[in-house]
Amino acid sequence: MDVYDSLLLHETPDQFFIEPIHDPGNILVIDRLNQEFSLVEGKKHIPSTSKSRSIFGIVGTIRLLAGPYLVVITKCSKAGMVNGQDIWKIDETEILPFARTILHLNEEQLSENKVYKAMVEHVLNIPHFYFSYTYDLTHSLQRLHNTMPEFLQIPLHERADERFVWNRHLIRDFVSQPQMAKFVLPVMLGFVQTHHCTVNRKKLLYTLISRRCCYRAGTRFFMRGVDQEGQVANYVETEQIVEYQGDKCSFIQTRGSIPIFWSQLPNLKYKPKPEAVQGANHLEGLSRHFDFQVLNYGKQVILNLIDQKGAEGKLEKAFSDVINSFRSPFVKYEAFDFHHECRKMRYDRLSVLLDRVSAEQEEYVYFMLLKDGTVVRQQDGVFRTNCIDCLDRTNVLQSLLARRNLQQVFLKLGILSEGQRIEDQHDFENLFKNIWADHADVISTQYSGTGALKTDFTRLGKRTKSGLLRDGVNSLVRYYKNNFADGFRQDAIDLFLGNYVVEQSRLVIRIDRSWKYLLLPGVWCIATAMVFVTLLLPNELSTESLLYLLFWSGMAVVSSYFIMANANEFVDWPKLVGRHQPPKQLEL
User: Is residue 584's pLDDT more than 70?
Assistant: First the structure.
């Protein structure tokens, strides 16, 4: 069952009327006063005085302090086509209050409601949300083909994989009434690009789709590892699709945080130490995670790219120890110290890891469906790649695995002949690299707040000085956001996904900062500025200027010490869900 693709929103002071343009006899009515949802037949129910405009779908409703809000799509653009069906990207949304006035709120409630609304807007502005009126975007080609025919007659939101439906909390008022199914639009967060290409003078459609899981969703430092249900942070399913003369091939990979209990809470240091949680039942968390993985994808090869020395090395050892205790015949573990092996920009060393897992790539193959409906092969295993963030190193390796898969697919489909290589198809190779670099930036922005690092290698096949400079800028922006902005971002995600439900009687956003929060950064800024002024202004270093330099340098050092000693005062901690708590003691 498809979803209505063209809608008119009619507003009156008391009601919202949502009219399907191609089915005007089936109109959704939302009563703004008693908050009831109903269907009526015919346009006669819509007052002539209503304000009308086009919308492109309903994201859902969310309740804040001022009452419910209706979230609608006001602008979208075509992201591509998969299996002959259109995929759309959300470009703009609008949040419409049910209540006509908010006079029932006091000043403090008004302030907090404004913050809640800003949180919802923040999530809706995360790049990129996608949807389709006709295609189940949350499932791979293989899963869709392996379902019963009756499955495709089920409403789109009911058959969607709930792991990837980001508005599942917002559509709860609609799904409770089955007759409204054609108004319910599942929305996915991730990445979609499709391109018509010519390879070896043969035309094909290349698609890359990534589906971000809404379980254990959050920001880089506040959401790490596994939870009690086996869900991991930053979990993404990536599907590469080739369509050629009616035949279709699909290759799935996954990424996700190391599936044991560990944390890496911000503390103003550039790179806080990742630490496994002492006394936690890591084996149980890992077992539940891989139960899901094997059920959904078959055999697993874990490609762990974190350092094998230092703080990351301790985490790698904890992970490998749990894997050794797990001893599953369906799970293989491959550790590869990316930074050590590829030091001095020797990224060609990744071929060592690719060769080590080439047998599994040959064994797991990919899904292939001929135009006559014949399934030639099924993918019965996946590579599950991770580094610390599951962003930069992970994306580099996933792109190389994807290229090896394309070599197999192009040979099987007859796009390339024996002896020909993708790398020699320069136009497609350039397109492929840029798609995967764009993919890296989007997936990274959704989790860390900035574009990916190391994308110069993905785009150009080598590391460059300009790429290193770009990585430096992104690293600084990540540092700022992860320490001073991610509490808000984490709260916004928790609110949007329904992990936190707003209560009228409970105000939690407001926080009183201590005197240190304002005084110490001010002292540090003034002291640092005076150091530079003292160094730059005098023509020669006099005794007086030397004393000034020593004084202000001392003030900068002392204020830095006290800032780091009171790091918890400065980090932007989440406030809505109580799972994130500042550590009692921090190393200086």
Answer: no
DSSP helix, strand, coil percent of the chain (3-state; round to 5)? 40, 25, 35
H/E stretch holding 488? helix 486-497
All structural domains of the chain with their residue ranges: 7-106+140-153, 187-424, 511-570
Average pLDDT of the chain? 91
pLDDT computed for residue 515 by the predictor: 56
The pLDDT tens digits of the residues spanning 324-354 come to 999 899 999 999 999 999 988 888 899 999 9
Q: Are 35 and 25 a contacting pair, CB within 8 Å?
A: no
Q: What is the pTM of this model?
A: 0.91
Cβ-Cβ contacts under 8 Å for 272 (sequence gap 6 or more):
221, 264, 265, 266
What angle separates helix 426-448 from helix 465-484, to the nearest 10 degrees?
20
Q: Cβ-count burial of 587 within 10 angstroms (0-12 exposed, 13-18 middle, 19+ buried)?
A: exposed
pLDDT at position 219 over 90:
yes
Task: Write the DSSP assignment of 451-468 as a string of letters.
Answer: PPSSHHHHHHSS--HHHH
Backbone region of residue 282 per phi and psi (left: phi > 0; alpha: psi in -120 to 50; beta: other values) = alpha
**Rounded to whole angstroms, what are the CA distances from 150 to 1, 154, 155, 183, 186?**
11, 7, 11, 20, 19
